[in-house]
Amino acid sequence: MLTDPIPFRLRDGREAVLRCPASGDAEAFLENYRVCVGETPYLNLTPEEAAAVTLEEERRFIQEYGSSPHKLLLSCFVDEVLAGSCDMVFQTSLKTRHRGGVGIAIQRRFWGLGIGTAMFRAMIELAGSREGVTQLELSCFEGNARARALYEKMGFRVRAVLPDAVRLEDGTLLNEYMMILKL
Prior knowledge:
Blueprint: E1 6-9, E2 15-19, H1 26-39, H2 47-51, H3 55-67, E3 71-78, E4 81-90, E5 99-106, H4 115-128, E6 135-141, H5 145-153, E7 157-167, E8 173-182
């Protein structure tokens, strides 16, 4: 699923743009994810797992999202630098096609500038314009207070808790909070 670029202004006054990544963005996209994974334990991959992803796999990932009517991938560029990305995947079966799942990752140096808010506004607007979609879903790991505050600000609410769902590299077990936004 493709969308037109969405320009917006950061809290520090700089211009930014949300746009679907192209195949030529694969290297920057992969590096962005590796940076994000290295900066927080709250993403699904470890730094070692992210390091194992090849450039060709990343190109295929971007192409898959760009060609699917049920998936959206957006990247945020600030001064031509990839600052973060988000994705949205819509269910396709008859019983679950009212649902969409979202994910987000932003490099730490770009936190607090309004990128997450802009990404969620874009995803919520696009989901709201999709026929039959009535809810967006995401998960948040215990301890990820910044992300949870953003999700709650955007209207998501905790609807379920999966105890000890995530094991960090040091063995720490974290709950996973399943959050839903009703559209």
